[in-house]
Amino acid sequence: MHTWNTEGRECRFLENVGRGKLKHLRDDDVSAYLGTLAARNLGNASLRLHLCALRAVFDKMLGMEITAGIVHAPRPAPRPVATDRELALLRQACTDWHSRLVIDMLNRSGFRPGELVSLAFAPPVTTMDGGERVGTPSIRPVLCFAPTSAEVDWLFPSPVRAGPMSLRTLQRRVTRLGAPLGFRITCTAVRKAPVVPMQAVA
Fold first, then answer.
1. Residue among 58, 64, 59 nearest 18 (CA)
2. What does the pLDDT read at residue 201?
3. Of all helices (H) and strands (E), which one includes residue 125?
4. 74, part of any domain
5. Is residue 41 part of a domain?
6. What values do phi and psi take at 170, rounded to 5?
7. Domain range holding 38?
8. Distance between CA atoms of 155 and 37, rounded to whole angstroms?
9. Per-residue pLDDT at 191
10. Cα distance between residue 165 and residue 118, in whole Å
């Protein structure tokens, strides 16, 4: 059993392995382990996390410096944003106002999908004596962020249960709009695309 003494900076592990075998340990164990993880189709973020853990143990704690030649998995390239043509085709493909509103709000408000599904109409304002203050028809309803357990009128209600639309449902709705058009679209691609002028939305 290998023990580590942080006060005396002594490690029985180093005595058993030996300094001359560090390269073999890196090539046969550490590199092979990372290769096995990569073969399991783990994402770059997971590979980077595993390498950081190995580096913390072998290099920082044990002072072996065997991961110095191993670089982090590269960060993924940024996903391309939606083009003006793709946004126009998405709007034409919307068969209901809810889908159209999702596309417009993602593009124009910059809200993340998780923020969109938590939007609800603000409850009526009450006076100090408990009476309800009724707004005039010319005043538009006010939107606010509400917890999923609240009993409010959701901007995007769930089609199958009481409460707001789930985040996954919203993401799938956007993705499915682009599938028949021949391109893959995501909420992020729509949200980070250049804002379409208001006259083009109407």
1. 64
2. 45
3. strand 125-126
4. no
5. yes
6. -65, -45
7. 4-61
8. 42
9. 92
10. 8
Taking the chain, what is the end-to-end CA distance rounded to the nearest angstrom?
71
Same domain for 108 and 177: yes
CA atoms within 13 A on the CB side of 25: 17
Asked if residue 76 is part of any domain, the answer here is no
Which tens digit of pLDDT belongs to each residue from 70-124? 776 666 677 789 998 999 999 888 888 888 999 999 998 888 999 999 988 876 5
Q: Which two tokens stand for residue 154?
A: 């959701």
Q: Are 192 and 111 in contact (CB under 8 A)?
A: no
Residue that has been written with the tokens 């004596």 in this structure: 129
Which residue type occupies 110?
G
Question: Which stretches of the chain are DSSP H helices?
Answer: 12-17, 22-25, 31-39, 44-55, 84-93, 97-109, 113-116, 167-178, 187-191, 198-201
90 and 40 in a single domain? The answer is: no
Cβ-based neighbours of 185, under 8 Å, separated by 6 or more: 82, 86, 90, 174, 175, 177, 178
The verdict on 51 and 113 lying in the same domain is no
- pTM > 0.70: yes or no: no
**Of 12, 29, 61, which residue is a domain's last?**
61
Instruction: Read off the DSSP letter of residue 53.
Output: H
Q: Report the alpha-carbon distance of residue 131 to residue 109 in Å, rounded.
A: 34
Same domain, 163 and 113: yes
- Considering its fold, how many domains does the chain have in total? 2
Which residues of the chain carry a pLDDT beneath 70?
A: 1-28, 72-76, 123-141, 197-202
Q: Which residue has the tokens 């009526």?
A: 124
Are 112 and 184 members of one domain?
Answer: yes
